[in-house]
Structures are given as structure tokens and as C-alpha cells.
Amino acid sequence: QVRLVESGGGLVQAGGSLRLSCAPSGRTFYAMAWFRQAPGEEREFVAAIGESAGSTYYADFVKGRFTISRADASNTVHLQMNSLKPEDTAVYYCAGDSSLTTVRRGPGYWGQGTQVTVSS
User: Fold this and answer.
1) SS (H, E, C) 77-102
2) CB-CB contact of 78 with 20 (8 Å)
């Protein structure tokens, strides 16, 4: 059974930091990504990473604040979120697929999501 398990969400004040983690099991994904969905909004792409740290993509609204990375040994993916803003409040979902294009546009595998709340 393929699973993506997120962790690391929580409540933080504006300007603070959080680190999300996503641990896949059941298969190895070439590409992994983070999406988020705020209440009443559509799910949106946040960041993606391929096999190497050199293959990363970010949404404009997180560039310079968020960093996606992956641990080679465990295939776990992290999202370091700094300078958080109240508008970053959302459920954050981990996703995986076989290519960066697919994982950014319509990944086939999703985690259950983790809540991030940023207070003003």
C-alpha cells in the first residue's frame, strides 16, 4: 500500500517558522511536492522537488521564504517555512509522482494533509 504521511504542522505566530515532513512508504517517488488549501479556496501548488536538490520549483508567493528538500536515505521530503504570514494558513498536502511535470500539475498520490495556522 502506497502512503504519504505528513507531520510538523501546528500553530505559529506571524514571522515564525515551521518545518513540515512527508514520509512516503510503499514506493519511491521521483518527484514530490507540497500543495495547500485554505478554507473556501482551491488547492494550490507550493513547491516541488525531483531527485536532486537542483530540481526544485516554487510558487511565487513562497519564493525566498520556503525551502523544499529531501533526505536521500529515507526519501523523506521536508518543507522549511520561514517568515510565515497569516495568509499561509491552510492544510498542507504532500504529493508524489513519477515526474516533476505531473507532480506539479496533477499528482497521483496524496497525503492526508497537515494543518498550518499562522496567527497575526
Assistant:
1) EEEEECCCCHHHCEEEEEEEECCHHH
2) yes
% pLDDT > 70, the chain: 97
CA distance 15 to 25: 33
Task: Name residues whose C-beta falls within 8 Å of residue 78's C-beta, 6 or more positions apart in sequence.
Answer: 19, 20, 21, 22, 68, 69, 70, 71
Nearest residue to 66 via CA among 4, 115, 120, 19:
19
Residues 58-100 have pLDDT tens digits of 999 999 999 999 987 668 999 999 999 999 999 999 999 999 9
